[in-house]
Amino acid sequence: MTTEEKVILLAILKKEADESLRDVLLVLENSRVFSLKEGKKLLKNLKERGYVENGGLTVAGEAAARAAEAEFRL
What is the sign, positive or negative, of the torsion defined by CA atoms of 35, 43, 14, 7? Predict the structure, then answer.
């Protein structure tokens, strides 16, 4: 899993209840993590791999996001 994918998972984990996945991608784009086009590709890949569905994280996605959070703390 790439660093950018981990950042997306962590951002989805930390998003507010009223924010959509698109809102999360726009925030990351504004932070210059990646372009919106690249973010959409990464999000699609995460959906295909079963980490994201229905506008939120799956159980596997949440576990991966928490692991990324622990990794980024170091």
Answer: negative
All residues at 6 or more sequence positions from 23 whose CB lies less than 8 Å from its CB, including other chains = 15
14 within 8 A of 48, measured Cβ to Cβ: no
Instruction: Give the CATH number of domain 3-73; options: 1.10.10, 1.10.1660, 1.20.144, 3.30.519.
Output: 1.10.10
What string of pLDDT tens digits covers the 74 residues of the chain?
999 999 999 999 999 989 999 999 999 999 999 999 999 999 999 999 999 999 899 999 999 999 999 998 87
In this prediction the pTM is 0.90
